[in-house]
Amino acid sequence: MQLSTQIMQVASMALLVGGCSSGGSVGIGGGSSGVGVGLSFPVGGSTADNDALADCEGDVYRITPRYPQQAAAQQFSGRVTVSFNVKLNGRAADYNAAGDKAFFEETKRAVLRSCWPEGVRQNLVVSYSNGKEVIWQENSL
Length: 141
Prior knowledge:
single chain; 141 residues; alpha+beta
């Protein structure tokens, strides 16, 4: 086995073990698909993260998450299921996520920067596939 392959395997194992011990969900991938074990819990900080953003003033739009660079390079696919309430200013609150941890931060960033229909609870799935495509889907819980 080549040294570079061994180093990659050790680094991948370290990331996997680190993700397991953090209490989140962990995606394990190779090739064009990933397998994730999902746990649902509030993700990072508070919903105050988007308080600094301006009110939506009636605008409704979704920011498309960026495909994380490392996941794209490995053509790792996955998905994140999100649910959140929408405040009267159109911003997300009470954000929860489940799915492949590799995509949590980008999904949260996009949700918090988007403007949503005022006061309407959102349940969505964000699918990441083949290292390049990101799709929002409605999710009826």
